[in-house]
Design goal:
With 314 residues, the chain is α/β, with parallel strands linked by helices. 46% of the residues lie in helices and 15% in strands. Helix 3 crosses helix 4 and helix 5 packs across helix 6.
């Protein structure tokens, strides 16, 4: 081997070794660096290790959606598409035990739901957010803002939401008897699949009313969302949405709140929810909808989306 060939060989070996070392350092650095959630969709790790699935679409001021029982982030399809197209960043997550999130055995209570939501907000670095919650998700939003404050929130909207408290008790004589929720639990355990057809086919969307325009697609979508979740989470969540008292949370909220409720809501009666909530929030606006059902964001998205947009822009 000539001297020139020997030198070339040494240079090649050195270059390969240096490149390998650089790759090793880069790999170590990447492993040590905290992982960031992927754009579009992904998972955020909650305090107890549960993985919370989220969708994150568009850009602009964030609107964060919290879904109802026993559904998923997909329940917000009409809102996600509408507001992303209007120039907003739209984020929705599957509550733990629901949809694509971890099917944990425990943690199905409003404090944990609120902490999971906080984990999503921090992981995605959401600031000046508008929080929108439907039904159980409205309770989640109220507890989140009451428990974690409004440092990253600009406004909130509660749609057919469960606050202040659903169950009948001495301090809430107008509430629904505990036997109603015991019946939910019994039906869930007896035949969850059938229950998840009966609820949307009947009172949830108001399809049991005379002259109602029934959508089999909405019924089947509701059933599908429910069935991909955990029966344990759904069972425990009944207690969370029916017995949690959000009165003090509502009093703490210091950002504008739009309270939206269907006057024919058969799931969360308006008299014991929206009409009480509006008296507890500091900066609230009440908007009610004659004849509209609990699932009005799905049955009447054109109206609900337009009113939400007006509130957000106001």
């Amino acid at each position: 081997m000539s001297q020139d060939q020997s030198g070339a060989t040494r240079r090649t070996v050195f270059a390969v070794g240096a490149a390998g070392a650089a790759l090793s350092v880069a790999a170590s650095a990447a492993e040590a660096a905290p992982s960031k959630p992927a754009a579009g969709s992904g998972y955020v790790t909650a305090a107890d290790g549960a993985e919370i699935f989220y969708k994150d679409w568009g850009s602009g001021q964030p609107i964060v959606f919290s879904h109802g029982w026993p559904l998923t982030a997909d329940d917000w399809d009409p809102q996600m598409m509408y507001f992303a197209d209007k120039g907003y960043r739209v984020v929705a997550h599957d509550r733990r035990g629901h949809g694509r999130s971890t099917q944990t055995w425990g943690g199905h209570d409003m404090d944990t739901y609120a902490d999971d939501l906080r984990a999503v907000v921090l992981a995605l670095d959401l600031k000046d957010a508008i929080h929108v919650g439907h039904s159980t998700g409205g309770g989640e939003v109220a507890r989140y803002l009451g428990r974690h404050g409004t440092d990253r929130a600009a406004k909130a909207a509660l749609i057919g939401a469960v606050p202040p408290v659903m169950v009948k008790k001495d301090s809430n004589p107008e509430g629904l008897p505990i036997e109603v929720f015991d019946g939910f639990r019994q039906a869930l355990l007896a035949d969850r699949s059938q229950m998840f057809l009966d609820v949307p086919a009947g009172p949830f969307f108001g399809f049991n009313r005379p002259g109602a325009k029934v959508s089999q697609g909405l019924i089947q979508k509701w059933w599908l969302q429910g069935m991909v979740g955990s029966v344990k989470a759904h069972y425990d969540c009944i207690k969370a949405f029916s017995e949690t008292d959000f009165t003090e949370d509502l009093k703490k909220i210091d950002v504008p709140v739009l309270v939206m409720h269907g006057e024919d809501d058969q799931i969360v009666p308006i008299a014991d929810s929206a009409l009480k909530t509006i008296k507890l929030v500091k900066h609230g606006t009440l908007k009610t909808y004659p004849g509209y059902p609990h699932g009005m964001a799905s049955t009447n998205p054109d109206v609900i989306n337009a009113d939400l947009l007006a509130f957000i822009r106001s």
